[in-house]
């Protein structure tokens, strides 16, 4: 599916609210754990020894893409919102961004060797029935040892629950459900984190890192 397909996570609300989102959330990290997780992800990518590019899927205004590039990784930001990418390109003119959704079907990515994928709070906007196909597609593009990091809002019981996201339809995944979906696609969980809800976050959040078999 191409960029702009709602089933792959595109939502027009992000185009309409791109400037407001960038102004409201100037940092890509809303707590210390989010930053530490990305630092650990960088260490895993370096330690894997697998050559290739990191894809930041759902990169938004490009903050995490820039963090990964500053850490020395070859990275491309990917997002289905043209307005988000306008901001990303303006803010990080030295980095590469591609208009595409989580299916990664843009011809601009055809010749890219994918070493790792990070999807922070982006798969939450993909209808759950479409997530397995996306993960299968990621696995097909990665060699053994490739790394995937997924983050999203979570639940306290083993379920997937739709919630009233401020911008677009979204789903909360229990980490066990996401780990199972990744396993079915050929990725084995390495570790996970869970950050409890607080005054700034309505729901608990998970990060899950998995390795391609």
Helix and strand arrangement:
Layout: H1 12-16, H2 18-24, H3 32-48, E1 53-57, H4 63-70, E2 75-79, H5 82-91, E3 96-99, E4 114-120, H6 131-140, E5 147-153, E6 160-163, E7 170-173, H7 175-185, E8 187-195, E9 205-212
Parallel strand pairs: 1-2, 1-4, 2-3, 4-5
Antiparallel strand pairs: 5-9, 6-7, 8-9
Helix pairs in contact: 6-7
What would you say about this model in short?
This protein has helices spanning 12-16, 18-24, 32-48, 63-70, 82-91, 131-140, 175-185; strands spanning 53-57, 75-79, 96-99, 114-120, 147-153, 160-163, 170-173, 187-195, 205-212. It has 213 residues and is of the alpha/beta class.
Features:
single chain; 213 residues; alpha/beta; two-stranded antiparallel sheet; 7 helices; 25% strand
Can you walk me through this structure?
Residues 54-146 form the Methyltransferase domain. InterPro entries: Methyltransf_25, SAM-dependent_MTases_sf. The chain has 213 residues and is α/β, with parallel strands linked by helices. Helices cover 32% and strands 25% of the residues. The chain has seven helices and nine strands. It has helices spanning 12-16, 18-24, 32-48, 63-70, 82-91, 131-140, 175-185, and strands at 53-57, 75-79, 96-99, 114-120, 147-153, 160-163, 170-173, 187-195, 205-212. The strands form two sheets. It has a seven-stranded mixed sheet, sandwiched between helices. β1 (53-57), α4 (63-70) and β2 (75-79) form a beta-alpha-beta unit.
């Amino acid at each position: 599916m191409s960029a702009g397909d709602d089933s792959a996570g595109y939502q027009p609300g992000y185009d309409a609210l791109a400037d407001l989102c960038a102004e409201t959330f100037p940092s890509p990290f809303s707590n210390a754990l989010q930053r530490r997780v990305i630092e650990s992800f960088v260490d895993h990518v370096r330690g894997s020894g697998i050559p290739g590019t990191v894809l930041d899927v759902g990169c938004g205004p490009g903050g995490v893409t820039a963090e990964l590039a500053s850490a020395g990784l070859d990275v491309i930001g990917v997002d289905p919102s043209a307005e988000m990418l306008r901001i990303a390109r303006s803010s990080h003119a030295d980095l590469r961004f591609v208009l595409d959704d989580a299916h990664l079907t843009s011809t601009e990515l055809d010749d890219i060797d994918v070493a790792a994928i990070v999807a922070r709070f982006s798969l939450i906007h993909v209808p759950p029935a479409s997530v397995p196909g996306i993960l299968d597609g990621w696995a097909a593009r990665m060699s053994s040892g490739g790394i995937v990091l997924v983050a999203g809002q979570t639940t306290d019981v083993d379920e997937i629950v739709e919630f009233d996201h401020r911008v677009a339809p979204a789903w909360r995944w229990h980490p066990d459900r996401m780990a199972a979906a990744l396993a079915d696609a050929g990725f084995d969980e390495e570790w996970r984190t869970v950050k409890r809800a607080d005054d700034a976050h309505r729901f608990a959040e998970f990060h899950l890192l998995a390795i391609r078999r």
